[in-house]
């Protein structure tokens, strides 16, 4: 199973989404940015590294949400979400097609990677519990 971490980066009342580029697996679908956890790397270190490599911004993971195991046709991933603080930098698209800063209420309108659908649901619950 491939272990993948993803970042729910919050700034003010919006959250950062990225669209995978055509060349990537699950191309053109939307995701929370992140990537595979390398052996001997902690989940948090891996997430900070991936976000820096892909978007050139600094994030600080502070809360792990419920991991999702999702079988794609040729491989299965464990997708582990973290709520993250935005710690600075300007987003650069080093791998993705595009990005959006989105209000939580608009999250259901995106074409998500299938593994992210329950994560979006849990995040919306987190948002509701803050009100
Ligand atoms: N990063 C990320 N990947 C996701 C999400 N949802 C989801 O199904 N995936 C899948 C797509 C890919 O099959 C896999 C992650 O691969 P990746 O291509 O982003 O990871 P990586 O940057 O470490 O990959 P690589 O360049 O080493 O191949 O997980 C998500 O929200 N974020």
Descriptive notes:
The chain is of the alpha+beta class and 131 residues long. Helix content is 21%, strand content 36%. It is globular, with a radius of gyration of 14 Å. The site of 8-OXO-2'-deoxyguanosine-5'-triphosphate has 16 residues, from strand 1, strand 4 and strand 7.
Q: Tell me the number of helical segments per DSSP (H or I, 4 or more residues long).
A: 2
> Could you state the order of secondary-structure elements as H and E?
EEEEHEEEEH
CATH classification, class level: Alpha Beta
Rg, Å, rounded: 14 Å
Bound molecules: 8-OXO-2'-deoxyguanosine-5'-triphosphate
| Oligomeric state, counting identical vs distinct chains | single chain
Q: Identify the CATH homologous superfamily.
A: Nucleoside Triphosphate Pyrophosphohydrolase
Helix and strand content put the structural class at: alpha+beta
Low-confidence stretches: none
Strand content: 35-45%
β-strand number? 8
Key features?
2 helices, globular, hydrolase, metal ion binding, DNA repair, alpha+beta, MutT-like, Nudix_hydrolase, Nucleoside Triphosphate Pyrophosphohydrolase, 21% helix, 131 residues, binds 8-OXO-2'-deoxyguanosine-5'-triphosphate, 8-stranded mixed beta sheet
Task: Describe this structure in a few short sentences.
Helices cover 21% and strands 36% of the residues. It has 131 residues and is of the alpha+beta class. A hairpin with a 4-residue loop joins β6 (68-71) and β7.
């Amino acid at each position: 199973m491939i272990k993948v971490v993803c970042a729910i980066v919050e700034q003010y009342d919006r959250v950062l989404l990225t669209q995978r580029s055509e060349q990537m697996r699950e191309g053109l679908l939307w995701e929370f940015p992140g990537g595979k956890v390398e052996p001997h790397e902690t989940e948090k270190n891996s997430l900070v590294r991936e976000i820096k490599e892909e978007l050139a911004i600094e994030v600080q993971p502070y809360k792990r949400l419920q991991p999702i195991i999702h079988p794609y046709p040729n491989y299965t991933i464990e997708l582990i979400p973290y709520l993250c603080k935005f710690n600075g930098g300007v987003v650069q698209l080093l791998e993705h097609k595009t990005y959006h800063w989105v209000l939580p209420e608009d999250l259901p309108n995106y074409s998500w990677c299938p593994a992210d659908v329950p994560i979006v649901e849990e995040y919306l619950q987190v948002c509701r519990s803050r009100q």
